[in-house]
Amino acid sequence: MDKTNTDTKTPTSKNPEDQTKTTEQTLAEEEQKFRAAPKLDRSPFHGLWALTNRDLRKWYTSPPQLLISLITPIVWLGLFGKALNFASFISSSGIPIAQQNAILISYFGTTSYFSFLSCGMLAFIVLFTSAFSGMSVVFDRRFGFLDKALSTPVARGTIIMAKVFQSVGKSLIQSGIILIIAVILGMETSHFTFLGVLGTFLMVFLLGTALSALFTMLALRSADWQTQQAIINLVNLPLLFASNALFPAKLMPGWLQDVVKVNPVSYAIDGVRQMLIGAHGMNSLLIDFVVIIAFAVVLSAICIVLSWRFLSK
Questions:
Q1: How far lies 270's CA from each of 151, 174, 265, in Å?
Q2: Virtual CA dihedral for 224, 239, 129, 305, nearest 10 degrees?
Q3: CA distance 263 to 243
Q4: Over the stretch 69-84, which tens digit does the pLDDT of each residue have?
Q5: Which of 132, 134, 243, 309 could tie 215 with a disulfide, CB 3.0–4.6 Å?
Q6: Is residue 71 part of a domain?
């Protein structure tokens, strides 16, 4: 009864060498896991494409949205552009054709008002597409996505610039479609060159960046889509009608001509007309590009700075 059963006794200690090996193996495994862990990306461009593509996907996967966004400029091109034929007004007065062409060129830079209007329609589509970049911020705030985005390591400036670039992407695609439709309907193409078309889309990119930054900036603190819609109408229509998009500044009152000269949209349209239809601009092409580049850089910088202060959950 007093005999101790040594065979069934569980040992309470291990060999010191085995304990050392186990400890070293555990440390090696932990070190390997630590080295394998991905580093947190804190670059200012982190998340930019993901957020931009999120908004673009909602647009290009819904063809009705693209179709609806093109209806207005197509109506202006097909109805207003073709109905308002200044050449027929002048020809009815009995003026010789050579003088008619000279008069049209002096006012429109071309003998075709339709070609003049088609260039203005590129700015038209950019204006109205950029306006809804701010609406995207309002809806993201209302549906809670903005709070989730602000909880990630993505910089606030990146969140805002994603809204700007998704709007610019839409503007470029829509401008290309509008340009094709204008050519089909009779836009003059004798002055088209590869560099001219490339420069036109660069101008559209810069104008879209500036206007998208402007409307996004105005929506940073807004949570009411009706208020944002009112702001869009308040800003958009004066920018359009106080520019040379629809009519040359020469046909406007003196005070309105002064407004046209300080409207950055006029410089973008002026540059597009010089590159596409060879019109004589109100400024040199270099000045047009300098003004639009400055417009885009300044508004984008202000938009990013304001996002640091005003963009919050």
A1: 43, 19, 9
A2: -60
A3: 6
A4: 778 777 878 777 777 7
A5: 134
A6: yes
- Closest alpha carbon to 169 in 200, 138, 212: 212
Cα-to-chain-centroid distance, residue 35? 40
In a domain, 289, yes or no: yes
How many CB atoms are located within 10 Å of the residue 276 CB?
25
pTM: predicted TM-score of the whole model, two decimal places = 0.80
CA atoms within 13 A on the CB side of 243: 24
Here the tokens at position 243 are 């520019």
- Residue 33 has what pLDDT? 54
The total number of residues written for the chain in this structure: 313
Confidence of residue 289 (pLDDT cuts 50, 70, 90): very high
Domain-located, residue 7: no
Q: At what angle do helices 264-276 and 113-142 cross, to 10 degrees?
A: 130
d(CA 178, CA 175) in angstroms, rounded, equals 5
* Number of structural domains the chain divides into: 1
Number of C-alpha atoms within 13 angstroms, CB side, residue 248?
A: 21
- The answer to whether residue 278 sits within a structural domain is yes
CB neighbour burial string for 9-33, b if at least 16 within 10 angstroms, e if fewer: eeeeeeeeeeeeeeeeeeeeeeeee
Q: % helix / strand / coil in the chain, to the nearest 5?
A: 75, 0, 25
Write the DSSP assignment of 121-167 as a string of letters.
HHHHHHHHHHHHHHHHHHHHHHTTHHHHHHTSSS-HHHHHHHHHHHH
Tell me the C-alpha distance between 65 and 286, whole Å. 36
- Its sign, for the CA torsion 215, 218, 222, 228, is negative
184 has pLDDT over 60: yes
